[in-house]
Amino acid sequence: MSYYKTPRFPSTNKIKIAAAVVTIIVIIVILAESIVIVEAGHRGVVLYLGAVENRVLGEGVHFIAPFLEQVVPMEVRTQKFQAEASAASNDLQEVQTVIALNYRIDPTEANKIYQILGVNYADRVISPTIQEAVKASVAKFNAEELITKRATAKSVIANAIRSTLAANDIQSQNVFITDFKFSEAFATQIEQKVVAFQKYLTELNNLRSVSVVANQSVAQAEGQARATAARATGESQAIKIITSQLRESPEYLQWQAISKWNGQMPYALGSSGFPFFQLPLPKAQNQTQ
Fold first, then answer.
1. How far is residue 68's CA from residue 49's CA, in Å, rounded to a whole number?
2. Contact (CB, 8 A) for 36 and 60
3. Is the dihedral of CA 199, 205, 208, 209 positive or negative?
4. Among 92, 80, 84, 186, which Cα is nearest to 134's?
5. CA-CA distances (angstroms) from residue 26 to 12, 34, 68?
6. Contact 79, 42 (CB under 8 A)
7. Burial state string for 142-151 with b = 16 or more CB within 10 A and e = fewer than 16
8. 207 vs 200, 202, 203, 210, 260, CA distance in Å?
């Protein structure tokens, strides 16, 4: 009876294969831990055994010390933060508003921001900054001025937000104030005041129209008076001229009668009468008479 024995591989070969596999895995892990890719719009904060290093990685591929260093990404693109805020005006009117802020962190100070504020810096700094800036700024204005001087109030709030965030290396790009909301009683009061002012403007325009008409009437009366005075002056001068003519030539009245005669002979009753005009007689007859 024969026995067949299965051939065995030498134990050394198994060890070599295992060692090779382990080596390849270690190399892959080391390479994976050594290569870091920072995405576009981000900066990499390098931590060495948990401590923040004084360098910031830009976009792209970087090599770090495996197992000793790690990279925390920080977004440096423009972001939006919106918050509701309430405050009391200078005349103690309750005011509510919504602030929308466009901001970005300073790319060169990303490691400092992470070290002091962490990744959730928006909730830790931006939100309370908006609340405090609105309260401090709104208190400088009366409620009515927040409406009539909206641009000024917005500028004061925006400057307060910018100055506070700049101290924390956060750049404020745009500050938007969507609206100011007041209590119903104050809103009704403002509406009534606006209506009263509109009525005042209407009455003022009516008064101006009446004044214009009155001035026109006065101007017409003065013009008529000047025309009457001119006519009277002209007639007076005409009378003076006529009187002067009569004194120099009594026949002027006969000339006027002839110039206005309609061609019909006048009728006269009685023995005595004043001739309409004296016809010229021949010289011989005049001499005989």
1. 5
2. no
3. negative
4. 84
5. 21, 12, 15
6. no
7. ebbebeeeee
8. 10, 9, 6, 5, 55
Q: Three-class SS string for 256-289?
A: HHHHCCCCCCCCCCCCCCCCCCCCCCCHHHHHHC
- Domains of the chain by start residue, with CATH: 11-75 (no CATH), 79-187 (3.30.479.30)
Residue 176 carries which side chain, given as an amino acid letter?
Answer: F
HEC string of 34-78 equals: HEEEECCCEEEEEEECCEEEEEEECCEEEECCCCCEEEEEEECCC
Segment 164-176, tens digit of pLDDT:
999 999 999 999 9
C-alpha span between 178 and 261 (Å, rounded): 93
**Beta strand 94-105 pairing with 60-63:** unpaired
**Which pairing describes strands 42-48 and 69-75: parallel, antiparallel, or unpaired?**
antiparallel
Residue 254: the pLDDT is 65
Rounded to 5°, the CA angle 69-70-72 comes to 145
Contact of 52 with 94, CB cutoff 8 Å: no
Q: Tokens 């119903």 sit at which residue?
A: 184
Predicted structure pTM score: 0.57
